[in-house]
Amino acid sequence: MTITKASSWMLRFPSNRAAAERADEEFELIGVTLEDSSGETGTGWTFTSDHGGGGAVKALLDDILVPRLKGREAHEVETINAELFHLTHRLGYGIASMAISAIDVALWDLKSRMAGLSLSRALGRSRATIPCYGSGKASPSLPIDDLVSLSAGYIADGFKAVKIRVGREPDRDVDRVRAVREAIGPEPLIMCDANERLSLPAALWLGKRLADLNVFWLEEPILSQDIEGYRRLRSALPMAFSMGEHVFSRRDFMPFIREGVTDVVNPDICFVGGITEAMKIGHVADSFGIGFAPHFMSVLSVHVAASLPRATFVEFYPFMDDLLTHQLLVKDGEIVVPDRPGHGVEFTKEAWRRYRVA
């Protein structure tokens, strides 16, 4: 089947209070919808948060990439992904990788639907549930009582792990993590994510104190490009390290994997070039014995993780549940892999009406 229609769109909607650092924080979804000659459709997207920028991604889609999709064979996902990479690589990673991600996700959605399969089955699903950790309810702006209540709520709902954001005020972070640990007990895992905010000395200081609270991993304590800094942290601190939500291709993951300075890679499917590239990163991680826990976009990550037998976790981050006709189901700390055709994500009519800006 050939692609007969291709268009882009953008939704802009407010972040939820439990995740936001500012009252006016917003997300933008920049998407692509494809239709083939049989009338089947596929949808994909990337996202921006906090400071916007979705218009730049959409401009690249509209001006350069989307027009090249019409007339292509819908099943040629890998070929199209490679062509778009070579077309844009002189622009650098970032916006180009995000735009390619939206197209790649749409292509995989369309290809899976054409075959009558869920995305995970089209990728070679190896399991029906995936361990997850509760995320998206731990903004540094939250009062400590709210942080404790929301984290404990995840545990009460059957989650066995939660993530707390740190890094804005390291001395205050210790008290916040300690309060959560005391509330949930010694068994559940706690991950801490600094969002690349710390200097090396601050990361060393905070890391030593978080280790005393049995933190499972420390995520992106310093800039994701600072391999020497990660090497020094690795030699000084006992907990696992994870990184990668701001790394935009498997090529840029390789130095960290080869050097052994990270234990878990966290690629974001919406940033690295889509499903195609995320699967390759997963296979590389597996080859080196590195954990794989894709970042953020749970509704897509669950399909990729289900197709990689040694994937470690999926981040359960329900940031756009109010926009969707179906939500992910979590049982006993594991996400049940959806079996609807394609990725199974459908936006409500109300979401299109209320939040569509382009």
Automatic annotation (TrEMBL):
Residues 144-240 form the Mandelate racemase/muconate lactonizing enzyme C-terminal domain. It holds the Pfam family MR_MLE_N. Transmembrane segments: none annotated. Its cofactor is Mg(2+). Gene3D superfamilies: Enolase-like C-terminal domain, Enolase-like, N-terminal domain. One of its GO terms (molecular function) is magnesium ion binding. It comes from the Bacteria. One of its GO terms (biological process) is amino acid catabolic process. Keywords: Magnesium, Metal-binding. PANTHER family: ENOLASE SUPERFAMILY, MANDELATE RACEMASE, MITOCHONDRIAL ENOLASE SUPERFAMILY MEMBER 1. This is L-alanine-DL-glutamate epimerase. The lineage of its organism: Bacteria, Pseudomonadati, Pseudomonadota, Alphaproteobacteria, Hyphomicrobiales.
